[in-house]
Amino acid sequence: MPQHIRIPESGQRLDRCLAGLLPGQSRSFIQKLLAEGRATLNGKSLKPSWKTVAGSIVELDIPEPEPMSVAAQDIPLDVVYEDDYLIVVNKPQGMVVHPAVGHRDQTLVNALLNHCAGQLSDLNGVIRPGIVHRIDKDTSGLLLVVKDNSVHAAVADKIRRHEIRRVYQAVVHGHVATQNGTIDAPIGRDPRHRQRMAVRPDGKPAVSHFQTIKAGDKASWLEVSLETGRTHQIRVHLQYIGHPVIGDPLYAGNRSAYGLTGQALHAGTLAFIHPVTGQPLTLTCPVPDSYEKIAGELL
Question: Model's pTM, two decimal places?
Answer without folding.
Answer: 0.76
